[in-house]
Amino acid sequence: MDPDTCSAKGCQAPAAWQLQWNNPKLHTPERRKVWLACDDHRGSLSDFLGARGFLKDVVPHDGSTPPE
Length: 68
Ligand SMILES: [Zn+2]
Known about the structure:
Blueprint: E1 17-21, E2 33-37, H1 42-51, E3 55-60
This protein binds zinc ion (ZN).
Zinc ion binds near residues 11 and 41.
């Protein structure tokens, strides 16, 4: 298994945050997709999801929830 890394394109930094999101056109309301983010990309990735109304939660990544 690879260590968890940031979901930003080309970024190999270890993930420090989970961005939990849901696209209501594709997912049931209780479904959560997860992007991982390093400290540097937490802002840009959450802005991307937030601008589309998809972002539900941002929590510290402790490795307990595997990304989809
Ligand atoms: Zn990153």
